[in-house]
Amino acid sequence: MINMNRELPGLSMKNPVMPASGCFGFGQEYARFYDLNKLGAITVKAVTAEERAGNPVPRVAETESGMLNAIGLQNPGLEHVLQHELPWLEQYDIPVIVNVAGNTMEDYIYVSETVSRVKNVSALELNISCPNVKVGGIQFGSDPAIAAELTKKVKAVSQVPVYVKLSPNVTDIVEMAKAVEEAGADGLSMINTLLGMKIDINTGKPVIANRTGGLSGPAIKPVAVRMIYQVSQAVDIPIIGMGGIHTADDILEFLMAGASAVAIGTANFVNPFACPELISSLETRMAELGIDDVESIVGRSWKTCSSVSLSSR
Amino acid sequence: MINMNRELPGLSMKNPVMPASGCFGFGQEYARFYDLNKLGAITVKAVTAEERAGNPVPRVAETESGMLNAIGLQNPGLEHVLQHELPWLEQYDIPVIVNVAGNTMEDYIYVSETVSRVKNVSALELNISCPNVKVGGIQFGSDPAIAAELTKKVKAVSQVPVYVKLSPNVTDIVEMAKAVEEAGADGLSMINTLLGMKIDINTGKPVIANRTGGLSGPAIKPVAVRMIYQVSQAVDIPIIGMGGIHTADDILEFLMAGASAVAIGTANFVNPFACPELISSLETRMAELGIDDVESIVGRSWKTCSSVSLSSR
Amino acid sequence: MIVEQLRITGQEEIAPRIYRMTLKGDSVQTMTEPGQFVHVKVSDGIDPLLRRPISICDVSQDKQELTIIYRAEGRGTRLLAAKKTDDTLDVLGPLGQGFPLDSLQKGSTALLVGGGVGIPPLYYLAKKLVKRGVNVRTILGFRQSEDIFLEKEFRELGDIVVTTEDGSKGVHGFVTDAMNQADKSYDSFFTCGPVPMLRAVKAAAASDGFISLEERMGCGVGACLACVCEASDASSQEGKKYRKICSDGPVFRAGEVVI
Amino acid sequence: MIVEQLRITGQEEIAPRIYRMTLKGDSVQTMTEPGQFVHVKVSDGIDPLLRRPISICDVSQDKQELTIIYRAEGRGTRLLAAKKTDDTLDVLGPLGQGFPLDSLQKGSTALLVGGGVGIPPLYYLAKKLVKRGVNVRTILGFRQSEDIFLEKEFRELGDIVVTTEDGSKGVHGFVTDAMNQADKSYDSFFTCGPVPMLRAVKAAAASDGFISLEERMGCGVGACLACVCEASDASSQEGKKYRKICSDGPVFRAGEVVI
Ligand SMILES: Cc1cc2nc3c(=O)[nH]c(=O)nc-3n(C[C@H](O)[C@H](O)[C@H](O)COP(=O)(O)OP(=O)(O)OC[C@H]3O[C@@H](n4cnc5c(N)ncnc54)[C@H](O)[C@@H]3O)c2cc1C
Ligand SMILES: Cc1cc2nc3c(=O)[nH]c(=O)nc-3n(C[C@H](O)[C@H](O)[C@H](O)COP(=O)(O)OP(=O)(O)OC[C@H]3O[C@@H](n4cnc5c(N)ncnc54)[C@H](O)[C@@H]3O)c2cc1C
Ligand SMILES: Cc1cc2nc3c(=O)[nH]c(=O)nc-3n(C[C@H](O)[C@H](O)[C@H](O)COP(=O)(O)O)c2cc1C
Ligand SMILES: Cc1cc2nc3c(=O)[nH]c(=O)nc-3n(C[C@H](O)[C@H](O)[C@H](O)COP(=O)(O)O)c2cc1C
Ligand code: FES
Ligand code: FES
């Protein structure tokens, strides 16, 4: 029997796979494809205090093995999420992680406090790393002191564990991770998108109306793996790893890099059944490789071999 | 007639295309495929004061639309380059850019001064951004004050224009660019590789012996375009753009982002004829799009339309 | 809503760079609503990464066959054009909300106005309308005479006017020139094509109608918010201030969204 | 040295996951040196990005045909295995330095030792040696009997011993077990296979010889320095402290490099 269970702060998961924030709405769309109870957990779209219209279109552009997006945190606002989206998720027996965003510390604190009191919310994910909003967000994600201060304040009001979602667009990701760990973060999510751009050579203008966008998909996977490898050795809190995962082998790579669980973003767009298919193929691959417990391979790439049982091929 | 000529500090180029440092040795290998006089210029492998053995193998790994490398600045050392490599290039009538690396400021200054006196050297490219050396290098590339100091010192001794090659692994690329511009840099090269990693799930260990490596290839193109777009608007010195260029349309994208010329790295490995083929297809594409002068589209994505003549399709 | 490997039963270039592809499979039986689209994966791997939205142009339930017509434009559609009979194609769909048929009674008249690759979804619509006993009049706009496609097929279903921008065939000018010249007694219009055309058609129209929009998409199923458009003032009062083109559309009542 | 679109004239699975592919084209006439390799682009696009190095296994100048034998292992070689007759393949080569033939006189004896997918280059070598009048003795190592390939072909050229790790056929054990059991009177050895095997063969050998190395490659032509190995002390005194496997090798004198 392969043990796929994961226990992370606030999250009792039957497998290590969840959709990534912003790539799965509030679950309703993909619930038409499969039973969401198959998921390890669900991370919903970023929630802000007020309703957000987001950026003008076009909001996405395709790049080699990746895509750019600049949705701009469009969301129906806290009230609507409390009244419609979260209650709808009550029918499922999976941990719900709410991604929280804002322009000011007060925004984050207000949304975090409120959302964390909702009974089916298992954890918060502080989105301090969205590259697509003009005010706030971006500064929180690149200044360790500010990120730490925000984390501390949110921790003080949150009823549930707090994960901080890190931006890869920094010189020193380890410094950021340590700062938020010290400030009390229960876990980390990484990575958010890399800031990128695509220009339409026929018009000479950026394809995305917002000009720059966040790069996701397989293209960024090596950067994500590297950052998780570095950070997981420097902190003691668990990491939810993401960035370009498209196959079960990718999941294993992220776990071995040091992630305790993984999130799937862009892959959902390529294949709406991505999450459940990855969960089942992960189990198959683990069997093939003789791995009987997800836990046993977390950080395998840097842990000394003796502590790990991995049969060679 | 399409005007492909480019005039950059120290570089009179008959077209905007040159191979990128480290991807073309000192030219001898690709000279067996075609006449190097077809190139706009040539950038040679990083030169250090002493001979360098580089990193253990494996040194490369393939990733989605990209590759990781950790060559570790292996090179035969300044003496050998002066006696064998640069003289060999004298037979060609193209500008030669020498990529300079080191562990200390003194290293850089010594190599720069010496190399800049060689008669067929047209410019230096200060590699302050190689992610694959343990000492030096990396700090120079992520601290604006140190980068500026290095630039100033090298400028003081160099007989030829100095380009500074920027690392993308920083929070604020514009700050770096402005710092080296102010310190006297004649131009910028960007981007170097993104720091990444790949883990072999069969062994649980990083594929690359050095563990992390530099990500190049189409995967990083959106990051390069974004950084060039940002930096070209903030500085007045020209940019040699690179990072994932594989097609003539990619070259146009880099020029429109704000690069004054481009360099081709990884694409040479995929197709040894990449550079000459790109040069000729660039001319074809410009004709198709009604662009008659490379200069006219540099920075097209952010310049006001009136200053640019680009026939719509 | 499913993802299925449909089998390609035919592929033909019907005008320069315009291809008609027929596909067979079980999911075709759910493709009953004209104006819906399918989200197509053009390669096995991750290059290109995203699916391509293509309208349902025709469906034969007898043959379990779906027809799409597309222009080989960028990388994805060029790869699509390189596929051969008996290859399979990963198709997600049908997606979105199509043209409502019940707004029109038997004996009423519908004006269909299409431009370029906006024309294909109107064909399935025309067939469905004719079946309901609705009179279908069609105006199709092209750049030049070589580009014309589906003319014969639409002619079998009712009156048709073709316009070309260079005047090389039919009415010289745009579809709106033909709209202005022609009989204005129709009960509803249905249009699909480039946004400037949609705007002009809406302005020139003598009735209410429905427009089909395009936008760059991520998921295609309403989850990523890549493809939104603004709801018009009137309709935003009824609820959300935006519409998702992939799941609330691509077809909207002409007054429902800002174009 | 050129890049050419060779036409695939045959593709066959000759053992589990082991494929033999034949290719035809002009550049084949330059492939005269056994031990050289070709650098193959397995897809049209950029996924997978890098070329794959594959040894030249045989060449027929009459038919202008190149044979390669490879194991469908990762993504690239699996894509290669999916190619069909008449597809074209983008091949760069021949690359590198092959096995030197002139070290052996007519009538002398060569021992060829190959393991797994290290075996293919030895076949072209064996043919060339036999043509020179050199006696060829071959030892081929496999995991198990099903994996065996090229046995018949080598047998036609001289003595051959097959070893299997599980003992299911031939000598039970490794190629070095066969080396130790067999006649030690040969003038030179030639070996290709996994590095531990090369080390063991070198240690067990009763003569000088040549080894062919593998390494992950970037350019394949000597420009990127991805594929270096260390020169042995003795040979580094003669010049550079390292060798590029793609251009100085893949074949080296056994004492020239550190393995
Ligand atoms: C609902 C809907 C129905 C459509 N129906 C048809 C049809 O029946 N026939 C037809 O020829 N075309 C149709 N299109 C347009 C078609 O989707 C694009 O032509 C196609 O996606 C372009 O892909 P590419 O690979 O050729 O271009 P690329 O330039 O390689 O595309 C890059 C990215 O941009 C997107 N993109 C580029 N142009 C468009 C566009 N015009 N609309 C939406 N996304 C775009 C692509 O999907 C891809 O994600 C439809 C679009 C939508 C939204
Ligand atoms: C000079 C030389 C000759 C070779 N000749 C043969 C041959 O005749 N038959 C055969 O079956 N194999 C041969 N190999 C090994 C063959 O190159 C690899 O099996 C192949 O590259 C693996 O590619 P993949 O797509 O299956 O694996 P992937 O895992 O997708 O490869 C990922 C990357 O790693 C590289 N790589 C992975 N394994 C190896 C390896 N063992 N050696 C070098 N690069 C590797 C790939 O080239 C690619 O760049 C040779 C290798 C070299 C260096
Ligand atoms: C369309 C889109 C919208 C996203 N929205 C959010 C968001 O609201 N909050 C957030 O923290 N991350 C958001 N992300 C980032 C993803 O959660 C994830 O970190 C990133 O896409 C990398 O994973 P992937 O490569 O698997 O997509 C979004 C990504 C995409 C592609
Ligand atoms: C194998 C390899 C070696 C490189 N060596 C150097 C180097 O010595 N000095 C340097 O400044 N950049 C070096 N680079 C970086 C390239 O010059 C270039 O900046 C980068 O690869 C991005 O361009 P590309 O995507 O076209 O390859 C190297 C890149 C590769 C792939
Ligand atoms: S494409 Fe994702 S919401 Fe429409
Ligand atoms: S692969 Fe580039 S030097 Fe050998």
From TrEMBL, chains A, B:
Species of the source: Salipaludibacillus aurantiacus
Main location: cytoplasm
Entry GO CC: cytoplasm
Residue sites binding FMN per the record: 21, 45-46, 99, 127, 165, 191, 217, 243-244, 265-266
Gene transcribed to yield this protein: pyrD
PROSITE patterns: DHODEHASE_1
Cofactor, free-text remark: Binds 1 FMN per subunit.
Keywords from the UniProt entry: Cytoplasm, Flavoprotein, FMN, NAD, Oxidoreductase, Pyrimidine biosynthesis
Subunit structure: Heterotetramer of 2 PyrK and 2 PyrD type B subunits.
Cofactor: FMN
Pfam family for this entry, one: DHO_dh
EC number: 1.3.-.-
Highest taxon above the source species: Bacteria
Protein's recorded name: Dihydroorotate dehydrogenase
Reactions performed catalytically: (S)-dihydroorotate + NAD(+) = orotate + NADH + H(+); (S)-dihydroorotate + A = orotate + AH2
Classification via HAMAP family: DHO_dh_type1 (MF_00224)
Biological-process GO terms, alphabetical: 'de novo' pyrimidine nucleobase biosynthetic process; 'de novo' UMP biosynthetic process
Pathway annotation: Pyrimidine metabolism; UMP biosynthesis via de novo pathway; orotate from (S)-dihydroorotate (NAD(+) route): step 1/1
Subcellular location: Cytoplasm
Molecular function in Gene Ontology: dihydroorotate dehydrogenase (NAD+) activity
